[in-house]
Design a protein that fits this description.
Helix content is 53%, strand content 4%. The protein has helices at 3-7, 14-17, 31-34, 49-71, 74-77, 85-91, 94-99, 109-130, 136-158, 165-174, 176-179, 185-204, 226-229, 249-252, 271-296; strands spanning 235-239, 253-257, 261-262.
């Protein structure tokens, strides 16, 4: 049995999905619109932590208020929906991600929307199965553990890890008020997530940038293999153990090209660390431009009185 090969087996869902994902068209939109959708044509400037704290407070306050105000609607309350479900499931830990660590891969729209929805489906589905048992109440804790565990595994395989989504799956099983909603929990979770995203787009793009990407950090304009096609002169790879030829580069390495920085989904970088990577990116860009200029500069013509040493023989 080849245990090492089995331990390194990797399911890359993006290999099958990205060919069908269209490239971003945000640059075609008016600047006033594309700006609040996260598009920047120049590198963004960092702001101090006092401003980050202020925007995080304003974002969390507005986000929770919007969701709770929406959930007071008679249409939603007619289903017996608790007012706190919107903020507790989507806004508790999510407020830290969506308004504070907004550059983390865990906070990007793909992770927040799909991660929450997958967790809600798993949580409700597991609860429905356990409810078939006559002693469901005594097994509710097992259903909660099972739902949270399966939701975590599903998010890993789909690359949509979003920590607050674990609460979605857990509460769907262990909280009688939430589990009573059944499949109606799914549209509620989607509504909460979309309201969170809408408020984050407005607030986070005033002095910062959100999202960093909508679905993937890979530049789809060059295809899914654009990292492998990047010129060596403008590329720096940090980490990993398989070099630059393996198929697991995005999982094991930080890759800096002359235009972009690729960071694995599981790795979170502090502001100081991101600053260092951006400096390296800028230096690579300068070196790449210099090499291009040298290639375009015509070689000086030889005068008639110059000696051609390349044809000399000893």
């Amino acid at each position: 049995m080849h245990f090492p090969a089995a331990l390194e087996y990797n399911i890359d869902i993006e290999k099958y999905i990205l060919p069908f994902i269209p490239r971003s068209r945000l640059h075609l939109l008016p600047r006033s619109i594309s700006h609040f959708l996260g598009y920047r044509n120049t590198p963004r400037k960092e702001i101090g932590n006092l401003l980050v704290a202020a925007w995080s407070f304003l974002g969390a306050f507005c986000g929770v208020a919007i969701i709770e105000g929406t959930f007071m609607s008679p249409v939603i309350q007619a289903h017996g929906t608790p007012l706190i479900i919107g903020s507790f499931i989507t806004k508790g830990a999510a407020a830290i991600l969506e308004y504070n660590t907004i550059e983390s891969p865990l906070a990007q729209p793909r992770n927040s929307i799909i991660g929450h929805f997958i967790s809600a489906v798993v949580g409700v589905g597991i609860t429905k199965l356990f409810e078939l048992h006559p002693n469901f109440e005594t097994l509710r804790w097992v259903a909660g553990a099972m739902a949270c565990g399966l939701a975590s595994a599903a998010m890993v395989l789909t690359k949509t890890v979003h920590p607050p989504a674990g609460a979605t799956a857990l509460l769907a099983a262990v909280d009688p008020t939430v589990s009573r909603l059944g499949w109606y929990l799914l549209p509620l979770v989607l509504l909460s997530t979309m309201l969170t995203l809408a408020s984050a787009l407005l607030i986070n793009n005033i002095q910062r940038q959100f999202p960093i990407y909508w679905f993937t950090p890979v530049d789809l304009s060059k295809g899914t293999d654009d990292v492998e096609k990047t010129p060596t002169v403008g590329r720096l790879s940090i980490g990993g153990r398989d070099g630059l030829s393996g198929g697991k580069e995005s999982e094991n390495q930080i890759i800096i090209t002359s235009q972009r920085i690729f960071v694995p989904d599981h790795l979170f970088l502090a502001a100081e660390e991101k600053g260092i990577l951006e400096i390296l990116r800028d230096r690579l860009h300068e070196g790449f431009q210099s090499s291009q200029d040298l290639e375009l500069t015509p070689a000086p013509s030889k005068s008639s009185d110059q000696t051609d040493f390349s044809k000399s023989t000893c």
